Structures are given as structure tokens and as C-alpha cells.
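2 proteins. here.
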Amino acid sequence: VPPSLKTVYCLRKLHKKKIFTPPPAPRPLSPQVTPRQVAMAFSIQEPVLVDKPVTAPPEKPQISLGTALAQLRNTYILAQNEQGLIIVDIHAAHERLSYEKMKQDPAHFLATQPLLIPITVNLNRQELLVWEKHQQELLQAGLITESCGPETILIREIPVLLHKADIKQLFHDVLADLTVDQRSARINHTIHEILGNIACKHAVQANERLSLPQMDALLRQMEQTPNSSFCNHGRPTWKQITWPEIDKFFLRGR
């Protein structure tokens, strides 16, 4: 069916109208931006990993040993915390603190002393082979040795802390350990024993009077020192008596 005159007129009228506006011409790039940068901005890039500071997980805080109240028999500290009362064995606690402090001082392990008179040690064939093989281990342990004959060696330097030890016997024992296990912790163990004895002798002794600030300082050091719940000989250093235990003893709440 041919279109009517009215339809043709409307179509011509629409054609004359600007129903589409072309986009404006692209603006020139800023001199600070290059075409390469534009292309990179719209390209797919790998995600960038940003390094974040790594923080160690917080350690569980040890129980607070509270505030010192008094010294009992010049032997124990009576303290109070949120859980109740705490009794601390002063000598045992100070012994552990001294021992741990000496352990952290490399001088106690690395220091050696030359001997005015070197120690002569006779070795059998097996011991001689072990000695020749493990020179580095012996050196790291603080034993400076040298050959002095077919089956004899001289020990010229030893760890300072072993100056009263039976060096000959200790050396034979170390070689025996190295023969079996290719390693020996005997010297290190002996040094730890000596450190423990030194700490025991230098710790606060019974019947020594402490002020409240001194007792509080001891409690704070215990809270920050590893293994402070036991002395070097395995005895406990403190005991907690909780408020419920005290209430139960006095039959409170019944």
C-alpha cells in the first residue's frame, strides 16, 4: 500500500532533524601522558603484591605475679594478683634469673683461656682418628689442641668456665661421644651445670632482707624470664593460692 501524503511529510521532517550528534573530536593527550601509558592503563596487568610488615603473633602473657605485700621469714615474697595470693621462693627465683641471664651472655660460652702449662693427653688409635676428624667441633667447643707426637696431643686452651674441671677425662668422654654419635653435647652440658652452680651461689640467700621495691622488681623479672617457674634444680619458684581456695578454706558462701 503506498504511503499517504501525511506519512511522507512526517518522514521528511524527521530526516531533516539532527537526531544524532557526533562526538567531539578527541582532545590531544597531555604532554605528561604518552600513548604507551594509556595503552598500559587499559591492559590486563598482573596484581602487584605489596609487602606488609610481618609481625610475630603475640605470645601468651604469663600470669601476673602481682604486687609484693611482704617478706615472710626473710625467705618468701607474699604477693597479691587478681587471682589471689602468690608465694615466691626468693632464692630459687633469683637463682633461675641469674642462670638465664648468664646463658644469654656469649662470653660465658665463647671465652677461652690459654693454659700456662698445656695438658698432655695420650690417645689410642681410635681416639686419634676421631680427634683428627673432628678438629672443627672441638674448636667450636673451646678446646684448642695440637699434635705432640704419634699418639699424644696438647690441649692449649679451654673454656674459661672449665678451669676447675677434669679436662683429661672430659676430653676422653667427648671423643667417645664423637665416636658413637658424630657429635657431643658433653662440654655444653658441663658448662650449663657450672653456670647453674654459679647462679646458685650468687643468688639471694635465705634470711636476706629485701625492700618492697626490690621484691616488686624481682616479680617483674620473673614475668619476663623464660622457665622462671622452676629453679635450676627443678624446684618450683612460686605458688598461686586462688581466692576461691581461700574462701573455701574459711567456709565462706555456705
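next one coming up
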Amino acid sequence: MNKSLLSGRQYMSIAALIILGESIILGGYTMPVTGKWLSMLIAVIFTFVLCFIYSYILRKFPKMDGYDISQKIFGKIFGKILIIIGILFCLGNAIITLRTILTFIIRLTFMDTPDLSLGIAVCTFSFLLLSRGIEVFGRIMTIVFQLLVVLILIFILMLYPQMNFEKLMPLVAAPISEVFKGAAYNVFVITGDIVVLLGLMVNMKNDNNVHIKSLSKANAIAGFIFILIIVSTVSTLGLPFGHIVHYPTYLAFSLINIGNFITRIEVVLSTFILTASICKFSVLLYVGGIGLKKLIGKGKVNYYIMLLNILALFVSVEIIKTLYLILIFNKNYPWIKGIYQIAIPIIMAIAVTFYKEKPKQKKSFFNIFKKS
């Protein structure tokens, strides 16, 4: 199989892990606990629209990725500008994801470990995952995603005896305006990041609708997991985690006495949650690397991945030394990501609809003499 192509299942698994990513650690919009599930549900419904837009663009040009499509329909100059925006989007998100991963590891385990040493380990692991090609990476992430879903569901079932569903009442206590603000936040910060999959090619040999099927399934599964997590967290602890954690990790479980057995399982689950974040980090680097290669026009993708890896490591360790700055940015300026997640794809979809291939110049006796 071509190592630059993904199967539909691999595409879906990567999309779902991108949605979960670091957001399963960071959490969502701060609001009364009984309104969070509705804001996430609205976000998932809106993301189905985005899935249709993304798949519509890719289906029109089945042998191209988003970078090639932008240059084809907008021309080289404006197309290059869109490529630069895409690279910056990938790099910025990679920095946020890496900073979240490092903070999560240091707070829960290696508290005295320098950020740099952990960052080098994560970046090296990510590069090794990608070094054999995106298709091999996709196979690994498919297995990881299936195990993650099973573990989360088992973990929630084990928490069932501790749940008190009266803590969920009333179902919606937040003002409707806050619910929609939360939904917008969840799209910009969580579900909308699947826009990076415009930079990946999927095998469409047997199914022209593979994009919409894969993206929709990923959105539905990841959204369902998030809503389950919110409901189980609130019904167990009755606490609005907001910007602390979306999933009850070790610190959350320490608030209730469930036993050492749960704690040991939680370590396993945390490992898979970190793997989901590393998957998102890796895909962002890969798509950004593809963009750099198309922008410069030569060289191997792996070289550009390594360059972005180093940049993400430097910024997340030396400049953004605390997660607080990221949380403030996500809270106050989430719409900035929406420019690339929503506005640009809508413009591309409209342009693709009205785009007409330029007719090829017919060969003639006079044209032969002109070329010679």
C-alpha cells in the first residue's frame, strides 16, 4: 500500500484522536456543570456540518490534498498564502498540545523533571512514529484508538456505583447564551481541529464518500465519549472541572476513596490519553511538514517534520512555560482558530463549486512550430 495514503478506518481513528487529543486533559468552557453536556452536543452537531464541507472539498479533487487544491483554485500566490496559514495553524496547535502533554506528565508523575528532557523524549517518540510513513502511523493509531475507547467505557462502568445522577439536575442550569458560548468554544478548541485532515490523503479507490463517512463517525464517537466523560464526572464528583481536567485523572480520583485498584487502572488510562495527545501532536507536525515541502518545493517531508518538531519544542519549553497562557488564549481568543477551521474552508468550498478546469490547448501544426 502507498505509505502516503490512509484507509477509511485509519482516517477515522486519527480524526477521533485529534478531537480527543489534549482536550481530554484540558477540558472545555467554564460554565455550570449541568450545561456542559448540552454545549458539547451542540458542538458535535455543528461539526457534522464542518465534516461535510471538508469532505466536499476533498471529494472534488480526489488525488489532491488541501494544499494542492488551494493552489489549483486560487492560483499560486494566494494558494501559497493559504499554505503558510495552514503551516502556522499546525505549528501553533502542536505547541499547545506539547505544552499540555508536558504539564500533564510533570504534574502527575515526574514533578522535578525538567521540561526540556521530557520534551525531547516526546518529540523523539513522535518523530519515530511518523518516520515509517503516515500509513504505518495510521495502523498504530487505529489500534490505540480502539483500546482507548474500550478502556474509557470500562472505567466509566466501574465508576457507576459511585455515581449519583441527582447531581445532574437540573439538566440545563446555565443560561442559553452561556450554552451557545460553550458550544462555540468546543468547536474552536476541540472538534474543529479535524480541519488539519484536509492535509492528508485517504484511499478513495472503492468509496468516493470515504471522507464524510470517516469524519462523521470520528465526530460522533469522540463527541459521545466527551459527553459520557462530562456526565460521569459530574455525577461522581459533582464538580465543574472547567479548565482543569475533562477526564477525572489521578487528582480527581483522590477526592473520593475508590481504592488502589482503580488508581492502577487510571495509570493505564492516562497512558492512552497521553497517546491520543501525542497522536494529535504527530499529525499536526506531519501535515505542517507536508505544507512546508509544498511551499519550498523540494526536500523530504521528514526533514520538515524534524524542523517543526524542534520549533514546537523550543517554544513550548522556553517561551510558553505555563499552561495558564494557553488557557487564557483559548478562553479569550478561540475565534482566531475559527478563521482556518471554518471561514477558509467555506470560501474554498464555494470556489470549488464554481471552479472550471481550463481547457487544454489543442495541438496544431502552428503550435508545433511555436514550441520548436
